[in-house]
Amino acid sequence: MKSLKELFQVGCGPSSSHTMAPQKIALFFLNRFPDKKFRVTLYGSLAHTGKGHGTDTVLKKVLGADTEVIFDTEEVNIEHPNTLDIEVLDEGKVVLRRRAYSLGGGAYSIAGEPEVITPEVYPLNHFSDIKAYCLEKDIRLSDYVFETEPDMKDYLEKIWDAMTDSIKRGLSAEGVLPGGLGVRRKARFLYLQRHIDESPETRENRLVCSYAFAVAEENAAGGNIVTAPTCGSAGVLPATLYYVQKTRNVTRDAIIRGLAVAGLIGNLIKRNASISGAECGCQAEIGSASAMAAGGLAEIFELGIDQIEYATEISIEHHLGLTCDPVAGLVQIPCIERNAVAAMRALNALSLADFLFATRTVSLDTIIEVMYETGKDLNKRYRETSEAGIAKLYRTPDKGV
Ligand code: SF4
Description:
Bound molecules: iron/sulfur cluster
Distance between the termini: 46 Å
Structural class: alpha+beta
Order of helices and strands: EHEHHEEEEHHHHHEHHHHHHHH
Number of strands: 7
Radius of gyration: 21 Å
Helix content: 40-55%
């Protein structure tokens, strides 16, 4: 597996697949052809939801405002659901044409160009092998991460600062999110709703959800967030960790350990399945984020390795089949609320795993495989095309459904 630095990246939302990777591809060509003009054709999910996600905006920002961006929603003969063609133009004539792919989580590849091969840092690619290694050496999962990537603690310190910044920014912001749907920011409102007779459970729910809303709304507004594992699902992990840090006397060192395990879980899913909504539906984004949060929390509270495995397995298992159908291609409905619900599910998975791990019957490796198979079986209309589900039937409230 690759470094966790490839999983956790700080960048602008709203989408790692639709803005971060296209931005990197555009920069690649701009650096190579600084004096030329460009034309970009988007296919698959990039074509269907690129407008809402702001793919054209980011491409024009990098390549120039006069860059022609074509949304080809008809072409079905594509190798990857997030495909684009980029043409380099010299006085209107095409001098180079390349096909590129946005692979999820901000990763990309360009056909015909030498692959930028980043090193395989982790020799073990399955949880069962990592677990056996940790048990043999009597170390925790976070120790395994720090043993494999000695500079990871410093990196995760910066990641945690960026995550908490995004929560704080989101909690202080108000108003309507961009894109035309008229979705109001709700994080601050939720955060401030204190009632005298509020139960501890309601308070937990309200606070965790407000933190998740804060990050997801920042992402929807194009703010700076951390992919965890993606932009669309960036609120789940920071919300849960921030909540326990604030309320349970959890040290910063424990949070960093939690992030390390969360990253390891995300990396396993990325390696053996997918973290891309266009490839495997929202289960691959929000389901993965929930599993990362559950694993991270279990590490923070120093649960055993079987309990960590169970907590993550539960989170994936009960997001199986979750479709990706963002209304108008914007990462707002259902995405923002979904971050909050997935954060609560991670907390729920943690407590179930704490008590019931001895009766666990499904391994983490198996459920990751199941998630991938399920994602491949999902009709492509439910894989970030905005052609079905809530994206299709949604009506603005004043018109009624
Ligand atoms: S529905 Fe899920 S996978 Fe799709 S854009 Fe929203 S958060 Fe991402």
